[in-house]
Amino acid sequence: MEEKKTLLSYKPGVVLQGVYKSYGRFGFLLTDEDHEDVYIADADHLNAVNNDTVEVKTKKSESGRHNTEGRITKVLERANDTFVCTYEMLEDGGEAVPIDEKVDMVIVIPEGAEMEATTGARVMVEVTKWPGEWTDAEGKVTEVIGYKGDKGLDIDIIVAQHRLPHEFSEKLLDEADNLPRDIQPGKGVKDFRSLPIVTIDGPDSKDLDDAVYCVKKDNGHFQLGVHIADVSRYVTKGSLLDEEAYHRGTSVYLADRVIPMLPFQLSNDLCSLNHDEDRYAMSCVMDVAPDGTVKTEVISPSVVRVARRCNYPEINKAFHEGIAPADLKPFLPMLEDLKECADCLRNNRTQRGALDFDFPEYKVVLDEEGVPLRIEKRIRSDAEKMIEDAMIAANEAVARFLEKTGHTSIYRVHDHPDAEKLNSLRRLIEIMGVNIQIPKDPEPKDIQKLLETVKGEDIEAVVQVMTLRSLPQACYSTENSGHFGIASECYTHFTSPIRRYPDLMVHRLIRQALSDELNKAQLKRQTEFLLRAADHCSETEQNATDTERDVDDLKMTEYMVPFVGEPFDAHITGITRFGIFVGLDNGVEGLIHIDSMDDDEYVYQEDTMTMKGRFSGTTYAMGMPVRVTLVKADKERREVDFIMGEIHSPLNLEKKTRSSSKSRSHSKKSQKKNKKGRK
């Protein structure tokens, strides 16, 4: 078993720079991977707030609890100057207190700077003067988000905390309204309107950006056409629409709303591949061999007319039960060809070593007032996988096409697993008795073999989660370093330009490559832009993911509120020094705090990744099924707490609830990993 790396501590008097992570009354300076983080006490944090870049001077530990302590001497760069706050009126102005507990300050709002907010309002506040040694911060209200009882306020607050733009200007909407609506094939534009092209999406989808057509040829090959909405024709470089789309980076899909990248006029109308309407597209027509290799691809602007709008449930019903509406039946032979082609593509990808984390997705269904009704579990269907296979093939084909141009392009890259996290994975599978060796520098096939080995076993879910945690996030880059998860040497995002800015950039690069219209100076300027844009789009994507996760956590926690005191079957998803994380079958995750485990004195066993009782020997391990009782569902903090076992006495429940409510330095959110994974 590999030994865990021992971190070094700093000597007193060393001056360091880094990012300050606040936990309210204390915090830590994040250091390099070789050193421990530096503890910052309440009295030593100056006026720094969470995520500020700071200068710290280390000092001798006063309590002896931390190897390295420090004092912030200077704030070098502020991470944020705007905060979501609760406003309170005073005689001469007011004051605002940030909702985020990690931001420990009061902001004074001078009279006239409150935007007519009254006591209890949730507001966005811009800091105009940071706190001094004896003075509070000052600021001004820039937006009144709402008041308690307002519909959707809880999600509005999360949107504001993540600083997501969610309104379009009148000038931008006017620009969208004035876009030309005439659609005519011109020079270099292929006409595919005679083909029985279909869209296949969820029943509620409104922004339809991909359509497909497939036919099996006499030689056994498939002609697969993937037709994508040609957003680049309408959203031109430098326009208001383009600037706003770049700023947003992506559409954000929340429980009660969609925050689109593009306004309705484009996303749901002009660019959307709506049934029986002519639309401009960017088409990728591929010749797919029976072994799943793409032999040729032709990429060009086009005009399409979708013959039928299909949805996943009806396609699955047609495939598995032989039941289909009358107007779908003429398309079934083509769809069967598409399914056969998709199977070939998927088999080829699997042989390459592609990873398939088939986690169930959970959706919180809300009523009209935003109150959770139920949590629905959804597993990717055959119809969804079929479309996914076609899109991946088109993304690879376009990436190869752009790489051949020799010019700077945008790629979707996914690096090899992190070494330290990979060591944790090795430890886990060794502890769980999985007889498989993971090389020091694994290839996708090595990880795929591990997932196949545990398939159908009790430990499958835990190993999948730990494997996913060992992998870095996929991101955008101008350097093609391949995509580990898909086992692809060359990959990009081309198929969703209505909701992702990188796809829109890729469409423009295709158009440029086909026309060869840029000179050397223009190419240089474009390269500089693409370098910035790749980083920006990766950041906006991560922010969107975090927002979506926070909203899901909020509504899942709210859903659990009526069930406080009830027992549940769960499984252990994580073990730390401060407690045990458990997951329910409905996707809800929460913490059993070690202070609530009072039937023994439990100690975290780092070498075996277990929690063990000193006297009874009772041991809790990853993946173990347990019976738990819900004792707290705190919607404000988005925290769910359980205790081990069942509690039948209301008095005992109250006692356990008090025990579990003790202050925690870690939240469940810090342990969670997005299981959806964005390819």
Write the layout of secondary structure elements.
Blueprint: E1 15-22, E2 27-30, E3 38-40, E4 53-59, E5 69-77, E6 82-90, E7 93-98, E8 107-109, E9 122-129, E10 137-146, H1 153-161, H2 170-177, E11 190-191, E12 198-201, E13 210-216, E14 222-229, H3 240-248, E15 252-254, E16 257-259, H4 264-270, E17 278-288, E18 294-305, E19 308-311, H5 312-321, H6 332-352, E20 361-366, E21 372-378, H7 382-404, E22 411-413, H8 419-431, H9 444-453, H10 460-470, E23 475-477, H11 501-515, H12 520-560, E24 567-576, E25 579-584, E26 589-593, E27 602-605, E28 610-613, E29 619-621, E30 625-634, E31 639-644, H13 650-660
Parallel strand pairs: 3-5, 8-10, 11-18, 12-19, 26-31
Antiparallel strand pairs: 1-2, 1-4, 2-3, 4-5, 6-7, 6-9, 7-8, 9-10, 13-14, 14-17, 15-16, 17-18, 20-21, 22-23, 24-25, 24-30, 25-26, 27-28, 28-29, 30-31
Helix pairs in contact: 1-12, 6-7, 8-10
Shape: globular
Q: What count of domains describes the coordinates?
A: 5
**Nearest-integer average pLDDT:** 91
How does the helix and strand content classify structurally? Answer: alpha+beta
